[in-house]
Structures are given as structure tokens and as C-alpha cells.
Design goal:
Chain B: Belongs to the ABC transporter superfamily. The complex is a heterodimer of chains A (281) and B (325). Helix content of chain A is 72%, strand content 0%. Chain A has 281 residues and is mainly alpha-helical. In chain A, 45% of the residues are buried. In chain B, the strands form 2 sheets. Chain B has an 8-stranded mixed beta sheet, sandwiched between helices. Chain B is globular. Classes of the chains: A mainly alpha (281), B alpha/beta (325).
Amino acid sequence: MNSRLRGNLKYQLKQNKLGIIAVIVIAILLIASILAFLAPHDPNKIDIMNSLKSPNKEHIFGTDEMGRDYFARALYGGRVSLTVGFLSMIISTVIGTIVGTISGYFGGRIDSLIMRTIDILMSIPTFFLILILNAYLKPGIQNIIIIIGLFSWMGIARIVRGETLSVKEREYVLYSKVTGEKSRTIMLKHIIPNIFPTVIVASTLNIAGAILTESSLSFLGLGVRQPDSSWGSMLKYAQGYIGDAPYLALFPGILILLTVLSFNILGDIFRVAFEPKANND
Amino acid sequence: MENKNKLIEVKNLKKYFPVGKSSLFGSTNYLKAVDDISFYINQGETLGLVGESGCGKSTTGRSIIRMFDINGGEIYYKGVDISKLKEKKLKPYRRKMQVIFQDPYASLNPTLTVKDLVSEPLDVYHIGNKKERYERVLELIEKVGLTKEHLDRYPHEFSGGQRQRIGIARALSINPEFILCDEPISALDVSIQAQVVNMLEDLQHELGLTYLFIAHDLSMVRHISQRIGVMYLGKLVEIGPSHAIYKNPLHPYTKALLSSVLEPDPKLARENPIRVIEGDVPSPLKPPTGCRFVTRCKYKKKECNNLEPELKEVEKDHFVACHLY
């Protein structure tokens, strides 16, 4: 990232109040889930006597049906959700960038082959594919991260391919080519660093998608298993008590909403900051 | 000319770009960017190539350095046909040919520092170790008038002229024999143009370089070139020693082109008004049959419409493709 982009980014953040809020929300959630071990209560300590207590001084988010502190569970759940979001984003970004760059750079038959494969993969409802795969794999965070990562790189690959098509005609790439540079080095040294801003935008949006997918999976009982929690699984267990204790659904619901919204706003800010044309509106 | 002295010889070079393949079964149209041209460049000389935008001069240059595959003809480098060589066999020739581009903003990767930019060709050919490369880069950067402090900066911190110097330093780093100067000065302002051209000349004398100098500024081309070629719509219409082209232009297009050079002396300028050519360049997708210049030529004859003129040697080394001669 060069200094012009950094300047743009600062400017956009200053201009966009919503953006500052988004950054603050993400920062708080990140810090809170990293420091989750400082929570006053053990998230897995069962205390049946205190079950389904609404929010109070002792338990600020209340307690769930087994009397566990809901605040601590939400913090640990956030840890799971954000971990899944970031790690699967990294997997999908790496795959998407490599595939997209190769496709765009070489063009011709390789490009057609890769693009048609992506078209096919994108036309399959990913969520059902993940559901089916999940049935054969042991549920757990690791598998979820890998599966989400492996099925969400196609969008990034398409974007990266488009950018590569434009960057590969720039004169510094042509220069490298006529100097006899290897294709692999050209891609690593000249193309990928110059499409990096676009990749950041796409991957930020991907985090939000991955968090949503994980929540949905957990909600369906295919994600994290008890006693571990994630925001999705918390929602699932809140279902049964929606009449008696609506706050059980409210807290994880709001947290998911805030996180996904913040990442989407952040992605949008990155997009505007990195796109010189969109700057003047 | 003895064959030995020719560094590069181009024979019947053709480069067509496919355009407008609209439907699956529709026939592809071709834009004949360069259509059957032949010329040579002697060792140690500068051949200037002029012509208006879109006439194929850049395409000609880029074909020679094998930026893309050509559609026909041969390119001889020291007698070896390099036009059909595969990338692996081409590599030793790539090392001998370098290029300086028009736009100093687009030709330097904005994410690399000057040191990395200039040492790129050295890295490609694994020349020297890290320290030797650094010393070579320093030597080059000082040769083009920049200093050690500039090495760790990024391209956007430099002015256009400085960037072009970085481009020149990069091109020189692997001791090429031939440099394609693809309109290296047209993006620079006039005072900087002279600096860059003088530097290119000094370097040529010092290192024995051969240039193909593409430009549309005729006075600069005259200053730097020993021979000049004039292109119009994918064709070479006239080629010869620069003094002959300037003193005695033969082709009507060359005459018009030369009269468009602005005269700084107002008295002289009044005496020799610019002779404007009528009309526009025809579409290169549908060039006129016969002579390409026929639609705009004042002297056209009957045969100009049907018969394509060949390059004829009218004076010694001075060739023209026109039915008037």
C-alpha cells in the first residue's frame, strides 16, 4: 500500500462517521474476544439454581437455561465467530488471489477453463454443499474454517482476474516480460502487489460472509458443539426460550448484526478509498 | 551497406490485431497495424521512426523486441531470425534488447523502490551478488544524474523527467546493445526533453548503443537520428539519412509532416506557411487500396488508386514508396 492510498483511507474514515463507528465496534469486539478469559464468570460453569435469570448486576447478559453466565459465553462465542471469519477469509483470499491471477495473466484456454469452473461452482448453492460435507466430517471449528474457506474463494478469484487483466497491460509488466522475467515472478512482484487494495476490499466483505455462514451452520447444529459456544449456537439454544427469556436471542443476534454490518461498512470504505474515481462524490 | 553492420533487419513485418469478433460465427476483422514493412538498423546508429498517432510505429518497435508474436515476416538480430523463437531460446536476445517507454508514470511499478526497479533486469539474469548489484545500481543511478538518497524512494516521489531517468538506468543495467525508445520524451516538458535526449546521445557514444527512436516530434528526431523512417497507416512511406529526409523530402506525406514543424523565427514562419493535409487518416480497418495516402494526396495519379507503391531507392540510401518517383 503506498502513502496515497493510506492518505485516502484516513480521509474517508474522517469523512464517514459510520466508518469510525464500524472500526470502533470491530476493535471492541476483537479486544473483548481476545481478552475473554478475563470475564468474571466461567462460561461453562453450570448453576441450575440460577437458570434463566434476566440481565442483572451479577450477570449483565443474564444466564441461560443451565445457569451459565451469558456474557462470558457471548465473549467466548465471539472468539469462535471472529476466528472462523478471519481464518476462512485468509484461506479463501489466498486461493482466490492465486487462481484469479493465473487466470487473468495467462488468458486464453486456461482462463476459459478456470472461469467456467468458477461459474459451475458458483451455481451450486454453497450452503447446501457445506451442509452435506459437514455431515461426513467431524463437527468442529477447524473443519468449519476449512470448509467455508474452500467454498468462498470464487468471488475473490473473479475480482482478482478482472484486475489482473488491466494490470497486465501496464508498461511495467510489459517491460518485465520483454526483459525475460519468469511469469511466476511477474505475478508475484508486479501484479499481486498492485491489485492488493482490491483484494483487501473483497476479503473484508468475505469476513462478514464467513461469520454469517458459521452462525447459520451453528444455528443448524452443525457448527460448534456444546459446551463450546458461538453466536450461532447461542441463537439455536435461545429458540426454546424465546417466550420466557427473549434476551437470550437478543444478545447474540445483535452481536452478529453489529459485526457483519461493521465489516460491510469497513469493506465499503476500503473500496471508496482505493478507487480514485469514487473519491470525488 | 555490408550485412555485418546491420544489427537489426526487419523483413516484411506484419502485425494484425483481431478486432470486433461480434458473434460466435462472425468472421474476425483485423486491424493491420503494421502491414508488410522492411528496414534495417545499423550498429551504433539511431533510426528515428515518425508518423502520426496510430500509424503503427510503436507496434513496429514492440514487434522487434518481441513483446508479442507477429503475424508474418522476419526479424533478424545480427543475422539470426528471432521472430519465431520460443521464449527459452529468445532469452539471450532479450538480454541484448531493452526498452524505454513513453509514459514514465506507467512504466515503473509504483510498489517498488528505485533500487528494486533498477536492479530488476539484474535479478532476472542473476548477475552478481547482492552487494555487486547494489553497486551497479548506484553507478547507474549516478550516471543518469540521480543520487544515492533516491535509492529507497518510490516512483511517485519523483518528477516525470526523473522517472524517465530511472527508466533509462533500468534499461542500461544489463548492458544492452539495442534500446527501443518508444516515444521516451513525448510525456515530458520541453526543457526536460532536451536533457533526456542529450543524455541518451551521450550514453550512445559512451556505450555504443543502437537506438530505434520512436517519436512524433520531428525536430527532436532530427537532432538524435542518423536515419529516419516515416510511417503512414501501417506502411513505411519513406526512409533515408536524416539530412536527406529534411533537405529533400520526397513523399508528399513527409513533405506535409515536415512543414508542420513550428518555426521559432516569425519572419521565416510567415514565409513558409504550414501546408495542411486535407482530410483525416482513413480507418486502419479499411485502408484504401493502392497507395495508403491516396485519399489525402494532392499529386495523386491514376495508378495510385490501384497499385500499391513499392519502396524505391531514389537517392543513395534514400527510399520512398510513391508513384511520383
